[in-house]
Amino acid sequence: MSAPRLMPYGDRAVLVDLDGTDEVLAWADALRADPPEGLGEVVPGGSTVLVVAAEGASTATLRAALEARRPGRAAATAEPDGGLVEIPVRYDGPDLADVAELTGLSPDEVVAAHTGQTWRVAFGGFAPGFGYLLGEDHRLRVPRRGRSRTAVPAGAVALADDYTGVYPRESPGGWQLIGHTDLTMWDLRRDPPAVLTPGARVRFVEER
Amino acid sequence: MSATGLRVHATGAQCLVEDLGRQGLTSIGVGRSGAADRGSLRRANRALANEEGDAALEVTLGGLVVEPVGGPVWLCVTGAPCPVTVDGRDVGADTVFSAPAGAVVRLGTPERGLRSYLAVRGGVAVEPVLGSRSHDVMAALGPDQVAEGDLLPVGRPGDSQPTVDSVLPLALPALDEPLVLRAVRGPRDGWLAEADRLVSTSWAASERSNRVGMRLQASSAEAGGGEAPVLRHADEAPPLPSEGAWRGAVQVPPDGEPVLLLADHPVTGGYPVVAVVVDIDVDLAAQARPGQLVRFRWTSPR
Hints:
The structure holds two protein chains of two kinds. Chain A folds into two domains: about 5-75, Gyrase A, domain 2, CATH 3.30.1360; about 85-205, Cyclophilin-like (Cyclophilin, Beta Barrel). Chain A has helices at about 20-35, 60-65, 75, 95-105, 105-115, and strands at about 5-10, 15, 40-45, 50-55, 85-90, 120-125, 125-135, 150, 155-160, 165, 170-175, 175-180, 200-205. By secondary structure, chain A is an alpha+beta fold. Chain A is about 20% helix and about 35% strand. Chain A has a seven-stranded mixed sheet with strand order 5-13-6-7-10-9-12. Chain A has a four-stranded antiparallel sheet with strand order 1-2-4-3, covered by helices on one side. Chain B has two domains: about 5-155, no CATH class; about 180-300, Cyclophilin-like (Cyclophilin), CATH 2.40.100.10. Helices cover about 10% and strands about 30% of the residues of chain B. The longest helix of chain B is centred in the N-terminal third of the chain and has 10 residues, at about 40-45. Chain B is elongated, with a radius of gyration of 20 Å. Classes of the chains: A alpha+beta, B mainly beta. At the A-B interface, strand 1, strand 2, strand 3, strand 4 and strand 6 of A face strand 12, strand 15, strand 18 and strand 19 of B.
């Protein structure tokens, strides 16, 4: 693996530019498993990892430590420690027909494609407990809806770009809704409160 | 001994409990949050011999009225300098003062700046959520927004005593002068047609700013009535996958009006970040009044 491309991000952070989700997860795992001196936060994205210095730590020191790092393929192919999460879904979303049309599949084939692959939590964001899940192929790649909904219900299972996700609570949203789950994705009484953590693998199981 | 607390009689436009925020939870979508102006919170806590991350009240544009109950309390107001009175007697901002049980402590409208901090010796001791007493408006996490009638518990003070009776006031430009923020170029300046227009443009803080971010509009002289955005995305810019975001990032949505991310920013974002304001200046940015002029100046990362 070649030297990482490091980009400045203000005076407290460095943005590590990588090649897709495998490298992102490998870097994020490696940084958490063996934190360099002065590491504060690690924020994975689609093809970058934002590395924030701890309070009082020097960004230059952190940058030097990152330059020396080469998380290898081993880390990328290692069994993710997030485990396998099963999410029961009723495929009754209002956009299922639109998704079928956009993908050229029948509604049943959309469901089969969604339940027939293992998804991985690439990164978080949007809301507490929301994970951007990346699949194994591009069959379900669809654009966001032209107009966002002002209220998407909690538990809505949705698609946008190459990702699928589950709305952890009612919120505005522009993703294509294909179904819903009764699984509570975010619960402050649990530790951790989120079902989905980066690297975790996810299977959707159809519930009739 | 009855527990000490602060009874809230009025909140002003917005009053929130804030400390220095949550750490290590970005992977499950929970950001740092905390006081929008961390330096002012720390100054107030240090003056009261608190831990510097103890929770205090973040008060937007004054208007807070509280009454100590259960015993006297030591207080200090920092941040946007506002009139502070105890039973009508002027005590002023940036000083350590005591107020007896039953007194009326009132924060007036600040002459400049946006957010004042009322800290109490012992700290505001509401129940923490995920390790912090900060209210995060974006994630809808943490203690509820402070409301009239609330009784806010005050924590037990530590052993060390306050040794100062005043703190340095926050240096803020007058309302008709621009706030000048130092910014490090990148990481996504290449996504914009002319990234240098960030520093050559005179911006104004929008009314639609909040703790998530300060929205900026080109001041009327700059926009010149034209339709084209001042900060235009480059025509050939490739799509940008979502990436981690941090306080101080200046994101540019397609409409060309930048957003400077503040305490409650989302954990990841999909708009190009043209520059990141140096950390200490983000506290200053959190004090910009809606309508106030804002300028950026390039600096190199240190």
